[in-house]
Design brief:
The chain is α/β, with parallel strands linked by helices and about 325 residues long. The protein has 13 helices and twelve strands. The strands form two sheets. It has a six-stranded parallel beta sheet with strand order 2-1-3-4-5-6. A six-stranded parallel beta sheet has the order 9-8-7-10-11-12, with helices on both faces. Helix 6 packs across helix 11.
Length: about 325
C-alpha cells in the first residue's frame, strides 16, 4: 500500500519555481508513495502569516513536506514525520532591526527547533543555516532540486558570432543586471531579459547603451524557447540558493556565464565560465571569451551536459524518496 506524502505549498502567486520543482519530484516518486499537495490559504504578508497559523488545517498523511518559503507553518506539524526544505536565507539580508529578528525566529530558529528533518538545496544554504542558528550540521541534509521536465536537451545551433543574443533570466536585485549592463557596454550583442524591469535597471541599460529587449509572464514552453534562441546565458547573480537557470541552460546546450560564488560554482559543476559578479570587467572578460573562442564554448557546453545529468528528475526524486523511506521507517536521516 502506498504511503501518502502531503506537500505543503505557499499560496500561489507569480513566482512559483519552487512549487514546480517539488511537483516534478513528486511526479517521479515510485509507486510506494502517493503524493498530494495542499496550499496555505493566505499569502506572504505578515498578517497572512498570522492568519495561516490560525486557520490552516492540514490534511491527513503519513509524512508532510513543507516545500520552502513558509517555514513558520512547521510550528503546526509533528517533529517526527515532517520535512522542511529551506531554499535560502536571503530574508536575513533584506530586513533590518526588529523585523529581521522576527523573521529569523519564524523562518529559522523556531522551525529548526521544532523539526528533526531539514533539507537545504545547496551546501551554501546549509552553511548559512548553521551560521545563523548554530544548529547541529547533522540535522540538515543537502538535496538537489531537479531539472524541470519541460526543459529537454537542446538542439544544435549556429552561434551568432557577429551579434550574439545573451539571455538573462530574472530581474530581482540579486540578479545583478546593472553590473551586467556595464560589462556589456560596447560589446556587439543583444541582451534578452526575462522578468519585469524597474527604473534602475532601465537606467543602467540606457546609460551603457545596451541593445536589449524584454519579456515577462512567460509559460514554461516559452521559457524553454528563450533558451533555444539564446547564444549565451548570463547568470551573474550576487546571491542564490541554488541557481536553476544554470542547469536549464546547460541542458539546452548553451554556454553559461555565472558567478564565482557558492552555490553557483557547485551548481554549474565545471560547466560554466565563472566571473566575479561585483566586477564588471570580470564579467566582460567572460563574455568576450565565450564570443571569441569557439573551442572554449564547445568545451563549456560539453561539460555542462555532463553536469546536468545529476539533476535529472528521477535521480533527484530517488534522493528524497530515500529520506522519506528512512523517516517512515523510524531511521535517522544521518544514515543517508
Amino acid at each position: 500500500m502506498s504511503r501518502k506524502i502531503l506537500f505543503i505549498e505557499r499560496k500561489p502567486y507569480d513566482s512559483v519555481s519552487i512549487e514546480k520543482a517539488f511537483r516534478c519530484i513528486a511526479a517521479n516518486l515510485s509507486s510506494k508513495f502517493a503524493a498530494e499537495f495542499q496550499q496555505l490559504p493566505y499569502g506572504n504578508l505578515f498578517s497572512d502569516t498570522i492568519r495561516n497559523l490560525l486557520f490552516f488545517r492540514k490534511k491527513n498523511a503519513d509524512l508532510y513536506h513543507i516545500t520552502g518559503h513558509t517555514h513558520y507553518i512547521s510550528l503546526l506539524f509533528s517533529r517526527r514525520n515532517t520535512v522542511l526544505s529551506i531554499m535560502d536565507v536571503r530574508f536575513l539580508y533584506n530586513k533590518p532591526g526588529l523585523k529581521r529578528w522576527l523573521l529569523k525566529k519564524l523562518y529559522l530558529d523556531w522551525p529548526l527547533r521544532k523539526l528533526d528533518f531539514i533539507t537545504a538545496i545547496s551546501e551554501h544554504t546549509k552553511s548559512e543555516i548553521i551560521r545563523y542558528t548554530g544548529c547541529d550540521p547533522g540535522k540538515i541534509l543537502m538535496l538537489d532540486l531537479p531539472l524541470m521536465v519541460n526543459v529537454e536537451p537542446g538542439k544544435g545551433y549556429e552561434f551568432n558570432q557577429q551579434k550574439p543574443t545573451i539571455l538573462q533570466i530574472g530581474t530581482m536585485d540579486n540578479k545583478n543586471i546593472p553590473t551586467l549592463a556595464k560589462a556589456l557596454s560596447g560589446i556587439a550583442c543583444k541582451l534578452r531579459i526575462i522578468g519585469r524591469l524597474n527604473a534602475g535597471i532601465i537606467s543602467a541599460l540606457v546609460e551603457n547603451q545596451v541593445d536589449y529587449d524584454n519579456a515577462y509572464d512567460l509559460t514554461d514552453e516559452q521559457i524553454s524557447k528563450e533558451y533555444e534562441m539564446a547564444d549565451i546565458v548570463a547568470f551573474c547573480s550576487t546571491y542564490e540558493g541554488f541557481g536553476l537557470p544554470i542547469i536549464e541552460a546547460q541542458s539546452m546546450k548553451r554556454p553559461v556565464l555565472t558567478s564565482n560564488l557558492s552555490p553557483m560554482i557547485e551548481t554549474s559543476g565545471g560547466g560554466a565560465v565563472l566571473a566575479n559578479p561585483f566586477d564588471y570587467l570580470s564579467i566582460r572578460a567572460g563574455i568576450e571569451k565565450l564570443i571569441g573562442d569557439a573551442d572554449y564554448r564547445l568545451e563549456m557546453v560539453s561539460a555542462g551536459l555532463k553536469n546536468v545529468e545529476r539533476f535529472r528528475p528521477a535521480i533527484v526524486a530517488a534522493q528524497y524518496e530515500k529520506l522519506y523511506t528512512q523517516i517512515l521507517g523510524n531511521k535517522s536521516a544521518d544514515a543517508i
